[in-house]
Amino acid sequence: EMAPHGPFETGFYSRSNDIYDERRLTLMSDLKEALTNGTTELHYQPKMDLRSGQIIGFEALIRWQHPERGWVPPIDFIPLAEKTGVITQLTHWVIDQALSDLRTLQKIQPGLGMAINVSARDLLSAGLEEQFAQSLARHQLEAGHVTVELTETAAMDDPEKGLEALGRLSALGLRISIDDFGAGYSSLSYLKQIPASELKLDRTLVHDIQASDSARVIVETAITMGHTLGYQVVAEGVESGQDAARLKAMGADLLQGFCLCRPQSLTATVDWLEKQRQPEESRDASWSD
Ligand code: C2E
Ligand code: MG
Ligand code: MG
Ligand code: MG
């Protein structure tokens, strides 16, 4: 489970930043410890079908409460975990925990899906598909209920190997999702070679659709392009009901965002899902029809 190279060999250590780098190394050894002693947690954010209003699945998002530093946001440790190779151990843990929790959620609503974020380094390291296969078997889940999310730039780190690895994941039956679309610089000709089922429009793209005509045109174009390439299109980071209604009118298929629900613990997710399934309850998503 250890990194193939120590952090000193990957070149991120530099003399000019001794103190800063020592802090980062400590953070990484704390993270490894947290992953083994169970102090990292997964929170879940629902994904909704905009036409039916049904919850179709959840995305797993890692949360880490550091004993001294308190809550550390993913942006402060995921990139470093990628650089040092700790991401391999992290992703391994995330896959098994998320699939174990999916089994719990499917008891409330059969057929629910789970999306797991993976990095370029995971994709290019051997054994990712074995980890998925083993966890699917352990928790008796169908591969088609699991989505692998990766950013367009992650897939392009090593385009040829990346496509090969994605082909293997897809052959296993997993769904592939291109995350944060519009935030990177992928070429459309590369994009269309990815065996993806889903395109997630980045939050920054979705953010301005009320205020700006050009943002609206860009989102509309991205939705049309996604559909032309055969993808389901997800709008992520949608904060207002107004935006959600607009995105629905623009033809987006799925929605995620604070307007529907913030990421929350498994226990809170179970309660929330049970409430959503009671028809007499007034729904959070009252704008959806
Ligand atoms: P992402 O995969 O694009 O995840 C969406 C991020 O947007 C999450 O941030 C989520 O909490 C946030 N979000 C969702 N709805 C809204 C909204 O309406 N408004 C706003 N402002 N934000 C919203 P989070 O959890 O901080 O994660 C940030 C990034 O860290 C993720 O972006 C993903 O790239 C990475 N990450 C998180 N968990 C994992 C993990 O388990 N493994 C890996 N490899 N990366 C992870
Ligand atoms: Mg994601
Ligand atoms: Mg995203
Ligand atoms: Mg994002």
TrEMBL record:
<feature type="domain" description="EAL">
    <location>
        <begin position="24"/>
        <end position="277"/>
    </location>
</feature>
<protein>
    <submittedName>
        <fullName>Diguanylate cyclase/phosphodiesterase</fullName>
    </submittedName>
</protein>
